[in-house]
Every structure is written in C-alpha cells, then in structure tokens.
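Lecture notes, unit on protein representations.

Consider one protein chain, 149 amino acids long.
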Amino acid sequence: MTDSRQDRRVVAAVYAGLVLTGIVTIAPYADRATTHLLADHIRAGYPAYGQARVDSAVTTYLVLLSVVGALGVLAWLGTAWAVRAGKPWARPAATVLFVLGLSVALTGLLTKDTSGDTGLPAALGWAGMAPCLAGAVVLALLWRRPRAV
C-alpha cells in the first residue's frame, strides 16, 4: 500500500469525483420532486404526450441515470482502491474509465432524441459533466507522479 502525499491527493480527487457522481445521480430525483425540469423538457419536446407517458419517460430516464451513476460509483471506488494499493495498472485503468465516463457524459449532454432536442435538459446534461472534471484532475495527478515499481 502506498501512502505518499501525491497518492493522497489522487485519492482525494477520486473521492471528490465520487461525491460529484453521487450528487449528479441524485439530482434527477430531486428534480422530479421539485422543479420537474426533466418532465417539462419531455413535455416540450413531445406536446402530444399525456401525463402518464411523460411520467413513464421520466421514470425511464431515472432508471438509466441511476444505473450509470451506480457504475460510476463503482468505477470511482475501484480507482481509489487501485491507487491506494499501489497497483501498477491504476493509471491505464483510470484513463480507460475516464474515457468511458466522458463518453457517457457527452452522450447525455449532446444526444438528440426524435423531437430534435437533446434527450436531457441542458442543466442535467451539464451536471453530468461535473464528475469528468474530477476525472481530469485524477488523471493529471496520476500521470505526473512517478511510476510505481
């Protein structure tokens, strides 16, 4: 197990990403209970949808975003473990996970649905990018440190 100051910084950045992922995963549920941004976005894109169909679409998004969030949490926890354990494959694994996470976040932000608008409202799409900032910091710190032998 490594315990260098640099490793502690990396792990701190990983935990920041974990917290951001948790917040982003919970945000659509908070939206559903308060502002209804997602429901309003779906309703605006599909004005012919009745309330039941809008609710069904919101539920589908909640399930999808929850699964993505859970996978993100597992990725952050695995990265923290690999860094703390001094695994030599931590850097390439973190890089692959970052690319996957960034791809998923960009997909959520930019993918247009059949209405011609993005599937997610911009606020939720941009929120999904937040953990990627932590991921970029993690990669910068990981690739700056000396390689574990």
